[in-house]
């Protein structure tokens, strides 16, 4: 059975308390409310991104369609203007004048039809631009909210990191001078058992595993020398016997 000064064993509980607090802070770092909010915001932004891409693509397509429609109308207008100019000069034959007049009527009908198409595209473009503006506004709001929450997350992390650094400094001071064998055993057990390597023997219970120890195990512990490093038979943790108010070891 390993041995270590009783005072070192009691001080080991202070080290364990610091390590437990460090674990709690590590858990808090991974479970900040801001992290849940960011996950939700990322999901909402991702969902909106598809609508944003679709809306932007539709607006771009309609702008191209409008450019073509405007070009078609302009082409017909130019043709009609040239025909009208030829008629106005009076330099064409009667037969050509008749042909130009017929063509002007045809061009007027064609222009009217193309202007209807142009107007329809303009109306659809306006509707889609309005829809796009709403989607972009919603996206901007989500991005702004995400930036705000990221700031809250970073502030929370900074606070927790400062606490961890302070704990680490306290741990160095607390562990300094402790029995090397005791510390080595503690670190080994702590690694194996998820962070808790030492616990108080509280009456007949191990505060590490919360199990009541059998009478035979308690008898062994009670009969062990004060400097004996005893361990819980249930979980294997170092059991620290803390002095009772009367001066006797607990348990």
UniProtKB/TrEMBL annotation:
* Residue ranges annotated for the CT398-like coiled coil hairpin domain, each copy included: 15-194
Query: Coiled-coil intervals in this record?
Result: 45-86, 125-152
**Domain C4-type zinc ribbon span(s) in chain numbering:** 205-239
Keywords, alphabetical: Coiled coil
The record's section on Pfam families has: CT398_CC (PF24481), Zn_ribbon_9 (PF02591)
Has keyword Oxidoreductase? no
Listed name of the protein: C4-type zinc ribbon domain-containing protein
Q: Which organism is it from?
A: Promicromonospora sukumoe
């Amino acid at each position: 059975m390993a041995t270590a000064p009783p005072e070192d064993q009691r001080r080991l509980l202070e080290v364990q308390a610091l390590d437990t607090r460090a674990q709690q802070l590590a858990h808090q770092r991974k479970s900040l409310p801001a992290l849940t909010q960011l996950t939700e915001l990322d999901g909402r932004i991702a969902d909106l991104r598809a609508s944003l891409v679709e809306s932007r693509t539709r607006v771009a397509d309609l702008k191209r369609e409008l450019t073509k429609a405007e070009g078609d109308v302009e082409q017909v207008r130019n043709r009609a203007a040239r025909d009208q100019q030829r008629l106005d000069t009076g330099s064409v034959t009667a037969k050509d004048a008749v042909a130009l007049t017929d063509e002007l009527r045809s061009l007027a009908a064609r222009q009217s039809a193309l202007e209807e198409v142009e107007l329809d595209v303009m109306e659809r473009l306006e509707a889609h631009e309005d829809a796009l503006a709403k989607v972009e506004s919603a996206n901007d709001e989500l991005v702004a909210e995400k930036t705000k929450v990221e700031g809250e997350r970073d502030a929370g992390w900074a606070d927790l990191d400062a606490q961890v650094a302070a704990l680490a400094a306290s741990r160095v001071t607390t562990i300094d001078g402790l029995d090397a064998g005791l510390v080595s055993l503690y670190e080994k057990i702590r690694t194996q058992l998820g962070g808790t390597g030492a616990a108080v023997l509280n009456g007949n219970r191990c505060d590490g595993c919360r199990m009541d120890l059998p009478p035979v195990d308690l008898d062994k512990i009670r009969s062990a020398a004060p400097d004996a490093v005893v361990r819980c038979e249930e979980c294997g943790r170092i059991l620290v016997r803390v002095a009772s108010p009367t001066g006797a070891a607990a348990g």
